[in-house]
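quick one: coenzyme A bound model?
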Amino acid sequence: MLIQEQDIYIRLMQDEIQDYQLIAKWLTDAKVLEFYEGRDNPFPLAKIIENYKPMVIGEDRVIPCIFYYQNIPIGYVQYYLLNELPETDRQMYGLNQTDNVYAIDLFIGATKYWNQGIGTKILSAITTYLFEVLLAEKIVIDPHVDNARAIRCYEKCGFVKVKVLPAHELHEGEYSDCWLMAIDRNKSLN
Ligand SMILES: CC(C)(COP(=O)(O)OP(=O)(O)OC[C@H]1O[C@@H](n2cnc3c(N)ncnc32)[C@H](O)[C@@H]1OP(=O)(O)O)[C@@H](O)C(=O)NCCC(=O)NCCS
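yep, here:
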């Protein structure tokens, strides 16, 4: 278990079929794919196992987690250290000086739970965990510029827009611009 507070609970994803099935259910739902991975890029079970198992068994630097709301699994969050990025990527993120910078990605897979403040609770909890337990100096997240709900959620958690990353991510056949958003340790723990 990573985090338990009030009605939310975040745990590491396990190398068990039920966990892979959960992610496959969510990442074959067009409503989710529209904002995460793309509707032209669904992840049925075999593809989930192929892509997520290396993370689950620790062969990949990305740490995959499942989160719960009121004891119901509703979504996925992953975090990873950016330290080992190539220098060009570090410069793109403006990270050439800073160590111990983490990135986060997340989605609520059970779409009826969108827009109820749960994403804000989950991201705030994982942000606090990364600062307090893993001693992150900075955390970044990079929503598509047109994902207004995600951007609003991240701003509510204290992330601020740093710069636009042009043509940052291939999404539904187009290279989309993303906002680089960041939160600093010294700003979050005051
Ligand atoms: C992004 C996501 C994690 C946010 O979690 P959430 O629980 O839905 O978000 P919250 O309810 O905590 O906050 C959303 C905020 O955006 C606002 N919002 C919703 N739709 C909006 C829109 N179209 N334009 C602007 N703001 C919008 C909400 O009103 C709320 O702000 P408020 O509290 O000031 O009213 C979740 O919606 C999700 O998983 N979406 C699909 C996948 C995705 O986009 N993942 C992120 C990829 S970067």
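The domain at 3-188 is CATH 3.40.630.30 (Aminopeptidase).
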